């Protein structure tokens, strides 16, 4: 190979995309929130699908979860709707809220008892008061959420009150990328 050809090859190689990192890679927070969104796709709830992802201080996913019925409770037998307001006591047994395990609780349970002290929780919906109790109890230090559409409801106000009281930081995640496409046919 001539010296000129070798220099041409070297110049092409140095300009090659393989020698430079991609600039459009996912930021960690977008990656973990996208994981929560993908997990939410597992939910069979016809109205509200929620996903959660717990991450340690080294940016490792330690658990994920989504909203659904407890293990072995058939999603063909238990109700997927809410009971009408002012329902009789028996009607409340046909309310999905009596049976559904929230995404945050499922993610915590999916850690199988490992320490969650100092971890971060990514969730597609701001956690309710019951999930906030669990978040506090296991030592999660930060909650990042995508939506807070029920912020005015008492159980979400109570959640914020508890999280504030113990110093668990929470903030709305604003994605750097507005869309992420997953294509199973892509090379």
Automatic annotation (TrEMBL):
Q: Give the span(s) annotated as Disordered.
A: 1-20
Query: What GO CC annotations are associated with the protein?
Result: cytoplasm
Biological processes per GO annotation = nucleotide biosynthetic process; pyrimidine nucleotide metabolic process
Instruction: Give a GO molecular function annotation for the protein.
Output: dCMP deaminase activity
* Catalytic site positions: 104
Q: Which cofactor does it need?
A: Zn(2+)
User: What InterPro entries does UniProt report for this protein, alphabetically?
Assistant: APOBEC/CMP_deaminase_Zn-bd, CMP_dCMP_dom, Cytidine_deaminase-like, dCMP_deaminase, dCMP_deaminase-rel, Deoxycytidylate_deaminase_dom
Query: Catalysed reaction(s)?
Result: dCMP + H2O + H(+) = dUMP + NH4(+)
This entry's Enzyme Commission designation comes to 3.5.4.12
Q: So where does Zn(2+) get bound?
A: 102, 128, 131
Domain CMP/dCMP-type deaminase residue range list? 27-170
Name the protein family. Answer: Belongs to the cytidine and deoxycytidylate deaminase family.
Can you say what this protein is called? Probable deoxycytidylate deaminase
Q: From what organism does this protein derive?
A: Drosophila simulans (Fruit fly)
